[in-house]
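Appendix C: a fully annotated inverse folding record. The material below is reproduced so that readers can follow the format used throughout the book. The structure is listed first as tokens, followed by the designed sequence.
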């Protein structure tokens, strides 16, 4: 069960909430509303709406670069 205190933001102005999961190594979870939770490795970018993707990408350039092979269009 998720608790309010399990969520945090990297910066106060961010719209992405990260979820503390100390009991699950390697799992990185995030949310935009603290209700729908995404698994970074499984759900990014395909399960995000275009608006969510724009928000996530603008706040998390590291992950955009990390997953650049997922987002490149075939040539």
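Designed amino acids, in order:
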């Amino acid at each position: 069960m998720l608790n309010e205190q399990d969520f945090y933001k990297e910066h106060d102005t961010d719209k992405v909430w990260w979820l503390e999961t100390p009991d699950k190594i390697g799992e990185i979870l995030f949310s935009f509303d603290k209700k729908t939770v995404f698994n970074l490795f499984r759900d990014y970018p395909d399960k995000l709406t275009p608006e969510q993707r724009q928000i996530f990408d603008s706040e998390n350039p590291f992950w955009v670069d990390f997953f650049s092979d997922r987002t490149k269009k075939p040539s």
